[in-house]
Specification:
The protein has 395 residues and is an alpha+beta fold. Helices cover 50% and strands 12% of the residues. InterPro entries: PatA-like_N (IPR025497).
């Protein structure tokens, strides 16, 4: 393909990328730049083979910390040592046994995916394609199919659109109700709630994310659905909508009574897309707890028994970027519960993702050792507002 330059206001990445992987034999550098952030994506034969970025959040050390592959002090010490030894950071980490090569590859692929996904959401800036790869682009050992990346990126764009329908203004501030589902709060959610208590705007909440802004948006949406965050500025409900919701809420209650928690969660979430409805928040919390318990009870009993198989390159096409992200979180977490609570996708979605990883053969369960006791069952009693009254295992 020939070189081209354009503006993202007219040529969004969603339109630019397909010809680059649909045309055989394309090799070149796709540069995307907005403000102080400049990213270069190195493409070859329909694959992403390398990424360069000026965003500090995408430094390999930060990515390793976010994925819990390394803790922050160890990642920083390794970086200083690599600089002193005049070695590339990734090379140093593997040579000195800080991380396994497979873990380093997972982190680099995660960094590459999230950088590309973020650019899909840009509505301004410059985009440029230049045939040929620089030496740095040829040296990186990634090989991610662009067609799969495009599929996941489009899904992320749609997720952002749904989020903006619910929260159209970045200057929105929130009231905080910590009493709702407090047992299920994660460290990331606690940080967002503290910021909201201090008067932070939605834009500031999203900017606080250690990883991609979409991850913070997912936490915000999750907290809103539970009723823990209530926007001060809301479009509100128009006259007649409360009557419309009466039938929908009755259906949610019917789903709860028949333990069809997945349908209850989905329907309550649809109601909350129209505006804050107190009963919908309460029903969502109850349905979420019931569904999460149903999905994750068996998973929590597998702590210490998960065996991780190497990810084939390329990864199975039916797995999403979120599935692969959770795979890395599981490998780096002390327990399954910690991984599910800290993954930026919600405990419910994470539980389903684990099942997909098991079906794909990337994780399997080792048998219990002879004489080992079966894990004790967990209490699952909830009150009408979805607050877990039993022992969920703690942190």
């Amino acid at each position: 393909m020939e070189a081209f330059t354009g503006n993202l206001a007219s040529y969004r990445l969603q339109l630019v990328l397909p010809p680059l992987f649909a045309t055989p034999g394309v090799e070149g550098t796709l540069r995307v730049e907005r403000g102080a952030v400049r990213r270069e994506f190195y493409l070859r034969d329909g694959h992403l083979v390398g990424v360069a970025s000026t965003d500090p959040r995408e430094h390999l050390a930060q990515v390793l910390v976010n994925l819990r592959i390394l803790d922050a002090p160890r990642a920083a010490a390794a970086f200083e040592a690599a600089e002193g030894a005049n070695l590339p950071y990734g090379t140093f980490l593997v040579q000195r046994c800080f991380v396994e090569l497979s873990q380093l590859t997972e982190a680099m692929e995660h960094k590459a995916r999230e950088a590309l996904f973020d650019c899909y959401a840009w509505e301004s800036g410059e985009v440029e394609f230049t045939p040929g790869l620089p030496l740095s682009g040829r040296a990186v050992g990634l090989r991610l199919p662009l067609s799969t990346l495009h599929r996941d990126a489009v899904s992320r764009v749609q997720e952002w659109a749904q989020f903006r329908d619910i929260f159209p203004r970045l200057d929105t501030t929130f009231r905080v109700f910590r009493e709702f589902a407090v047992e299920t709060f994660s460290e990331e959610e606690d940080v967002l709630l503290d910021l909201a208590v201090g008067g932070a705007t939605l834009g500031e909440l999203l900017a606080s994310a250690r990883e991609a802004p979409l991850f913070a948006a997912r936490w915000v949406l999750h907290l809103y659905r539970r009723g823990a965050l209530a926007p001060h500025r809301s479009t509100g409900l128009t006259v007649g909508e409360s009557t419309e919701f009466t039938e929908l809420l009755a259906l949610v209650r019917a789903f709860l009574s028949s333990r069809k928690y997945d349908l209850a969660v989905a329907l309550a979430a649809q109601v909350l897309e129209r505006g804050p409805v107190p009963e919908a928040h309460a029903l969502y919390r109850e349905a979420e707890v019931g569904l999460t318990l149903a999905l994750s009870d068996a998973l929590f009993a597998l702590d210490g028994r998960l065996v991780f198989e190497p990810i084939p390159r390329p990864a199975p096409p039916d797995l999403t970027a979120d599935d692969l992200y959770l795979y890395s979180k599981l490998r780096g977490s002390r327990s399954i519960r910690q991984a599910l609570r800290t993954a930026a996708m919600g405990e419910l979605a994470a539980s389903r993702s684990v099942e997909r990883l098991r079906a794909a053969g990337l994780i399997r369960v080792a048998p219990l050792e002879p004489g080992a006791p079966e894990p004790a069952p967990r209490r699952t009693t909830t009150d009408p507002y979805g607050l877990n009254l039993g022992d969920l295992g703690g942190n």
